[in-house]
C-alpha cells in the first residue's frame, strides 16, 4: 500500500455544508482520485457541544448525494478509527504528553479580553500574535494564578522560519515566533486544539495529502513544527482558493442560500458539481458533471491561486 495517495475530508460539522466546504471537498477528492488514491472522512467535532452527531450524519448524506464517496471513516468506520475527533482525546493526550516531556508546554492564564486588547500585535489575517505573557511565569505565580482560573496550555515555539511548497499556492513560510507566537495545544476545559488533533489524526490515518481552504494556509507552519516534534511524517499540502460571495465577502455557514439545503432544492448534484468545477477552472463552461467525469482532466495547475468571486447568477 505504500506510495498510495490518501486524501481526506475533515469537516467540522457545526452546520450544513456550504459551497466553500464543498469546493474543497471536491478538490480533495479529485486530487486523491486522479492519483488512483483513497479518501478518508474524519469528523472534526472536537467541540462536541457545537457539533452534534446529527450534523455529521447530514454531512455524510450530502457528500454521498454529490457523488463524493469516501473509502473509509465517518460512520463507515475502518482500520484507522476512531474517525470522530470527539472520541480521540486519549490519543491526543499521548502526543500532548510527548510535547510536555520535551519541556515545551506551559500554562497560559490570559483571558480572551486580554489577548484581544487593542495593544496586542495582530497578524495580517486578523488573529492575535501571542506576545508570550505567560511564557516565563515562576512556579509560585503559576500556583497563585491557578487558584483563580484553570489555564489553557500553549506550545513554546522557536524563533525559526518554517516553509513549505504548497501544491496550489506555491511557497509559503512563516517565522513561528514572530508571525504567530506560542500557540494553544489544549483549552482550559481540557479539549485539545485543532492544530494538535489534526496533525495527530492525519499522521495516524496515513494521510499523504491535505487539501483544504486557503484560510488554513497559515496554520501549516505550526503543524509542520508539530510533525517534527512528534517525529511524524508530514503530508503534502494544497490550499485551495476561497469562494467569495458576489459582494466580495467570504462565504460562510451564515450564507444560508449557499447551504446545501437550499442548493439541493434548486439543483441536481451534477449541476452543483459542474458549476463549482467551472468556478475553479476545471472546465470551460458550467455544464453538469459527475465528480468521476472530472478525474481524467484534473490538475492543480488549472486551479486559480486567488480567491474566487462567484460569477453572478452561477448559483
Ligand atoms: N475542520 C476544518 C474545517 O472544517 C478543516 C481542518 C483541516 O482541513 O485541516 O474548516
Describe, in plain words, how this protein is organized in 3D.
This protein has 315 residues and is α/β, with parallel strands linked by helices. It folds into two domains: 6-87 and 199-309, HUPs (Rossmann fold), CATH 3.40.50; 90-195, Glutamyl-tRNA Synthetase, Domain 3 (Glutamyl-tRNA Synthetase, domain 3, Alpha-Beta Complex), CATH 3.90.800. The protein has helices at 19-34, 53-66, 89-101, 112-115, 139-146, 176-180, 194-204, 220-230, 260-266, 269-279, 291-294; strands at residues 6-9, 38-41, 72-73, 105-108, 152-155, 161-166, 170-175, 183-186, 209-213, 236-240, 243-244, 308-309. The protein has a three-stranded parallel sheet with strand order 1-2-3, with helices on one face. Helix 2 links the parallel strand 2 (38-41) and strand 3 (72-73). Helix 7 (194-204) packs across helix 8 (220-230). It is globular and about 65 Å long. The mean pLDDT is 94. It binds glutamic acid. Residues 10-12, 44, 198, 212, 216 line the site of glutamic acid. Glutamic acid is lined by residues 10-12, 44, 198, 212, 216.
Amino acid at each position: 500500500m505504500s506510495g498510495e495517495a490518501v486524501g481526506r475530508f475533515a469537516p467540522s460539522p457545526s452546520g450544513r455544508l456550504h459551497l466553500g466546504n464543498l469546493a474543497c471537498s471536491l478538490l480533495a477528492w479529485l486530487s486523491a482520485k486522479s492519483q488512483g488514491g483513497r479518501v478518508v472522512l474524519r469528523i472534526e467535532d472536537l467541540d462536541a457541544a457545537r457539533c452534534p452527531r446529527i450534523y455529521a450524519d447530514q454531512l455524510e448524506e450530502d457528500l454521498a448525494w454529490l457523488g463524493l464517496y469516501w473509502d473509509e471513516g465517518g460512520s463507515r468506520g475502518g482500520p484507522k478509527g476512531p474517525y470522530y475527533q470527539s472520541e480521540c482525546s486519549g490519543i491526543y493526550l499521548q502526543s500532548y504528553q510527548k510535547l510536555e516531556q520535551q519541556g515545551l508546554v506551559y500554562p497560559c492564564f490570559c483571558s480572551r479580553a486580554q489577548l484581544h486588547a487593542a495593544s496586542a500585535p495582530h497578524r495580517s489575517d486578523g488573529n492575535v500574535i501571542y506576545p508570550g505573557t505567560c511564557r516565563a511565569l515562576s512556579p509560585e505565580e503559576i500556583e497563585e494564578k491557578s487558584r483563580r482560573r484553570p489555564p489553557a496550555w500553549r506550545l513554546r515555539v522557536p524563533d525559526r522560519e518554517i516553509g513549505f511548497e504548497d501544491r496550489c499556492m506555491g511557497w509559503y513560510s512563516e517565522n513561528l515566533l514572530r508571525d504567530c507566537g506560542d500557540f494553544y495545544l489544549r483549552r482550559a476545559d481540557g479539549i485539545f486544539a485543532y492544530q494538535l488533533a489534526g496533525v495527530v489524526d492525519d499522521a495516524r490515518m496515513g494521510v499523504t495529502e491535505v487539501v483544504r481552504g486557503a484560510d488554513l494556509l497559515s496554520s501549516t507552519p505550526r503543524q509542520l513544527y508539530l510533525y517534527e516534534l512528534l517525529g511524524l511524517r508530514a503530508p503534502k499540502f494544497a490550499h485551495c482558493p476561497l469562494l467569495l460571495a458576489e459582494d466580495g465577502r467570504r462565504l460562510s455557514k451564515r450564507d444560508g442560500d449557499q447551504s446545501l439545503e437550499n442548493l439541493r432544492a434548486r439543483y441536481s448534484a451534477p449541476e452543483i458539481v459542474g458549476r463549482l468545477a467551472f468556478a475553479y477552472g476545471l472546465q470551460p463552461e458550467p455544464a453538469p458533471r459527475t465528480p468521476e467525469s472530472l478525474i481524467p482532466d484534473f490538475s492543480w495547475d488549472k486551479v486559480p491561486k486567488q480567491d474566487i468571486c462567484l460569477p453572478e447568477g452561477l448559483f
